[in-house]
Amino acid sequence: MNSIKRLFTSVIAGTLLVSSSFNYVKASEREVRIYSGRHYNTDKQIYKQFAEETGIKIRLIEATGISLVERLKREGSNSKADVILLVDAARISNAAKSGLLQSYRSSKLDKNVPVEYRDPQARWYALTRRVRVMVANPKKVDINSIKDYSDLANPSLDGLVCVRKRSSPYNQSLVANQIVNKGEAQTKEWLKGMISNISQPFFPGDIGVIRAVAQGKCGVGIVNHYYVSRMLAGVNGRKDQRLAKKVKVLTPNPAHVNVSAGGIAKYAENKEEAIQLLEYLASPAGSSGLAGPTFEHPLVGFNKTDEVAQFGGFTPDSVTIDQLGANNKKAIQLMRKADWD
User: Fold this and answer.
1) Fold classified for 130-256+308-337
2) Hey, do 8-129+258-303 and 130-256+308-337 end up sharing a CATH topology, with the first three levels equal?
3) Binding residues
4) Which biological process terms from the Gene Ontology are attached to this UniProt entry (predicted)?
5) Model confidence over 211-242: pLDDT tens digits?
6) pTM, entire model
């Protein structure tokens, strides 16, 4: 989605309504207004359920995370946002550091969101999890020799590695993860070796990487697990479904985990309702409801759909989401120096 949707969506009692201005809801009615970087239609079903149970209307704007953050900065104290939902650790962390979110305490959120998946200053809480995995073509590479991200630097994979562009927040967080886990020096060596194994142009998206691996244009790539699941489920059509069946998902043990997360906007006018919504979304039922149809993982446990379950479980590493955000700038610097375009 390249531009911000200008229509706000209101949800109450299972009915989806659209309003072109914030004046649509009467002053006596409770509402919460969301700026969301999650672009999944299935999220609206969870919002409907929340509205039905609480009587609180949902007003929604969806756009890319970068667009939303820039909009919040432009709007300043005139912003109408109550809740901010973003994907990737760096985006939510940077939004907090930029003063776009406010700190708030909630015993329900502290109970339902593991400590490694929330901001130490209580400005944001994770809602769903994503695993950065490798996809390999068994006809091109020996999948038994690839067990960790570091293996992609092996000279035996010369010309066989393909990855998404440096601008991908998911790749930036992966590199930040490696900095925390293995140190800057070892991460530099890994990047140098892996980038030297790349012969294809850097891809604009994860799906392009999966297609290239499946078609044998390269042998192994790095993607978020749910992109493979979406293809397997036929979301992108039968051709992509056939291609997804040709790749093998390889999950490191332990694995790098990223999140989608939410926080309360600095100038939220409906703070009580906003906290109530985030508590709902982070609850076991809410997190599973968001994650299930998008093939993400809930905060606790695993996605049980066939398209995800076939990959097996995973063990998250010990890196916190806050650490990923803190090391984002250093990660980008190392990627640039390694010629990761």
Assistant:
1) D-Maltodextrin-Binding Protein; domain 2 (3.40.190)
2) yes
3) 39, 226-227
4) iron ion transport
5) 999 999 999 999 999 999 999 999 999 999 99
6) 0.91
